[in-house]
Amino acid sequence: MTEAGAEYWSARDLMPLLGYETWRRFEESITRAKFTAANQNQPIESLFVGTVKKSEGGRPAEDIHLSRYACYLVAMNGDPRKPEVAAAQSYFAIQTRAAEVQAPPAKPSGAELLAMAVIEAQAMIAAKDQHIAELEPKADYVDTFVADEDLITIRTLASDLKIGENELRAILLDRKWIYKQESSRWSESKQRKEPVYRYSAMADKKNYFHAVLAHDAPRFKGEVMHTLKITPAGAAAVTRLVGQLRRAADAFKSVEGPAA
After folding, report:
1. Most CB within 10 Å of its CB: which of 73, 188, 226, 236?
2. Residue 68 in contact with residue 24, Cβ under 8 Å?
3. Which residues are in the Bro-N domain (predicted)?
4. How far is residue 239's CA from residue 20's CA, in Å, rounded to a whole number?
5. What whole-number distance in Å separates Cα of residue 144 and Cα of residue 152?
6. What is the residue-level pLDDT of the chain in tens, covering all 260 positions?
7. 0.85 exceeded by the pTM?
């Protein structure tokens, strides 16, 4: 309850109940829920109230206080591939149908009923899946540089590894961890077309990278532009890869001997 007595639910607490392990991924569902609310002329400011919550490590973390209706919208805008989200959406669909055929006017119906049902759905999800799968033990690099829910840019990781950004990107391209797409965009300042590149993860490396959508940027070949960032698991894997390449280079130098 807020100081004013309003009922709310923490987005951080709702996140694991809907099967999400990282705040970044869950935040995408919240953003879509806000768009849905805006399209229905709902007061976003009172449905989604930004706040800060202390994490288990004691560090402040971004949080959002969700109204009952906001909880419902977040669940309905979640990733249906997640069993928890699919269960919640199925539950809401059943309740919607039940609300449509109910005759007694005293009972809530439609969106109001669904908003109230989110609390029951949370309990059902929690009972269905009592534990979240243990994450892979993280490499020392992740513990040192990257928080569990953080993403890191290629530039930042390259700087941490004492390697050039372009060199690191070239390694990832050469190893087929990522691929590059090229387009062009008119530059007002230069009065000519300039090349524009977009980098994406290869299918088998999806868990190493995350495409952060930039809806306010110009479209790329008709699609939403994105910036490719590295996940904690990806940061650990790239660090190992660079270490292997460096050791291989050192071994080659020792075999080749000093330059004449």
Report:
1. 73
2. no
3. 5-88
4. 26
5. 13
6. 555 566 788 898 889 888 898 998 999 999 999 998 888 888 898 899 988 876 666 677 889 999 888 888 898 898 888 888 888 777 777 766 666 665 454 455 444 454 455 555 555 544 444 433 344 444 444 444 544 457 889 999 999 999 999 999 999 999 999 999 999 888 888 888 888 899 999 999 999 999 988 887 888 888 888 999 999 889 999 999 998 888 887 776 665 555 54
7. no
What letter represents residue 105's amino acid?
A: P
**Taking the alpha carbons of 163, 166, 170, 172 in that order, is the dihedral positive or negative?**
positive
